[in-house]
Every structure is written in C-alpha cells, then in structure tokens.
C-alpha cells in the first residue's frame, strides 16, 4: 500500500461520493472475452451479496456491444461500455485512461482484473495513477462484511509455503488481479436484466505514445486455462518425442497439451504449456497426467480439474493419490491404447 501522503486529492477527498460496488474489468480480444473475466464476475457476485452492493463490469474496445450483453448474462448489474477506435487493440495508455475515467466517475470500492499478461500490465498502470494498493495474482478473494467492507486478497507467498492475505485499509478502490482458472463463472443467463451505460472517454490518438503497426497472430496459441481437456506430460516422457504422442491424444479428445516444469526446463516443450506454481492454473473437465510424479508445485496448478487420470509406472507416486483414475503402467503402452480408444468413439 502506498504511503498515505502520496494519495491524491481525488482518492481521499471528503466531499467525494462513497466508494461502493465491485468493478470487474472485462478483457476481450477481437470481440472474444477471456474466461477469467466471467470467472471474476462470478466471484464478484458472491462477494457483492455479503456487501449488499452492485456488480459493475467495464467493457472496452471498438464494436464490442455483444461482449457487454454477455457481461450481464454472466452476472453484472451494470456494464460501462467504452467504445472507441483507439481502444480497438490493447494499449496500456488508452485502456488505463478508460478505466481511470470509470473509477473516478462511478467510484467502485473494489476493482478486479484478470492476472493475464494484459491484465497485469493494465492493473499496475491504474494503481500507480490513482494511487492505491494492488494485490497481484490472487488465488482467493473474499470480503469482510460491513462495516469494514475490506477486500481479503490472498495469494501464495514464500514458494507456496504460506498464503498471505493482503489488505488495503486506507485507499480506495481496493485492487486485485486474480489468476485465471481459480474461480468459477456463473452459468450465463441470457434472460438476466442489467443496464449498459456508454461512457465517453476523451482519447486523442495523437497523444497516445504507442501505435499498432501490425498484428501478427501466433499459430501456436496455447490457451491452457480455457481447455476442457488437458493431456500433460512430465519427466517420465524421457524426451520431446513423448509430447508428439500426447498431442495425438489431446487432438483425439479435443484438448490441449500441458507439461510439468522439468519437461519445460529440458526444452522438450515451450513454457506456455507449463502447469503449476510457476506455470498456469487450470480447471479442465479432464486432466490426464502422464509420467508426472505429482509434486505439490504441480498439484496446485491442476487441483481444480474435475476428473484426474494419472498414468505412472510407480503406484506410490503422489499423483496416483490425487487421481480419480490411476493407471499403473508404462505411458508408452497406455497412451497409444487411449488414443486408439478415443479415436474409435
Ligand atoms: P518427476 O518428479 O521426476 O516424475 C516423473 C514421474 O514419471 C515419476 O513418477 C515416474 O514414476 C514416472 N515415469 C517415468 N517413466 C515412466 C513411464 N515410461 N511411464 C509412466 N510413468 C513413468 N513443477 C511443475 O510441474 N510446475 C511448476 O509450476 C513448478 N514450479 C516450481 C516452483 C518451485 C519454486 C519449485 C522449487 C519447484 C517447482 N516445480 C514445478 C518442480 C516440482 O517440485 C517437481 O520437481 C516437478 O513437478 C516434477 O516433475 P515431474 O513429475 O515431471 O518429474
């Protein structure tokens, strides 16, 4: 939390309106929202019930009204829509201007942002401008009921050895970024009522330092947090060729490929595939762990999976205890059989 003397007038001004409500900053790219935005809206709804306040969403972009309508279906009471050509592609400066505009006008007591690359960049830029405290990369969010109304933002600290709950007592809004995959989104309800309120943000393109010259799309876009099926491999694969086999199984099941840290460190697969404490936190419906022992640093990243299948030669490997289905055997025999079965169905 910054020093109190650093606070600007607008953050402490006594004549200003009360800070009320929870604002979720929705992240969208090309009109497609990142699931973490809906997960945060779900969590914001649960917290708003304790506080007795509104859930607000902010949708920024150009031509993104459908995303605003979806935000209502996912739990927002009011959606602020900042629709501007300068917001067509993410850039720190115009996006933070738009968020600051909404914070100043509508005064949410809590602001939540997904801890994606974009969200981390944006939240930091906003917190320093207000200025207020920001708890980054949270894995638990809750609130203390009135009168304190404090955001309880928790995140692992000291290599996951303890959970630190960080409070922002003096400044408003209280800000946090939260990891994708740790909260559950509500079932979207297209019949939910809410209001969409356009906001006029003054953005002058000539004063924005960064220009978008070209957008190059990567073909290998790994979206582990969004995958419904993940087939992950570890040191037990013995080399990069193992991942070709896992890719076949993932393709047959319509899923993605994940990895443990040693497999990434050995250079068998890119870090974008890593699951765990220093990788991604995932919540697929099905997680198949092949040749992974189940160290705690791996388990924290995939314990939200609905069903875990482990393939391991060692029946005593910790992953076997964490699995719903434990297959004891050589993965080079078991995985081809699984591929055959998956293709047959
Ligand atoms: P191992 O522990 O070596 O396990 C290999 C397994 O494969 C064994 O159980 C073995 O029985 C099995 N096996 C071998 N051959 C076969 C075969 N042919 N068929 C079937 N099974 C076979 N780890 C992560 O995964 N993600 C992280 O984000 C992460 N972050 C970390 C952060 C910190 C600060 C630290 C200290 C560690 C971190 N680690 C992380 C590392 C973690 O502690 C473990 O070392 C790692 O998860 C082990 O990877 P593994 O299961 O692939 O390898």
UniProtKB/TrEMBL annotation:
Keywords: Electron transport, FAD, Flavoprotein, Transport. Belongs to the ETF alpha-subunit/FixB family. SUPFAM superfamilies: Adenine nucleotide alpha hydrolases-like, DHS-like NAD/FAD-binding domain. The keyword Nucleotide-binding does not apply. This is Electron transfer flavoprotein subunit alpha/FixB family protein. It comes from Carboxydichorda subterranea. It holds the Pfam family ETF. Residues 22-212 form the Electron transfer flavoprotein alpha/beta-subunit N-terminal domain. Residues 1-15 are annotated as: Disordered.
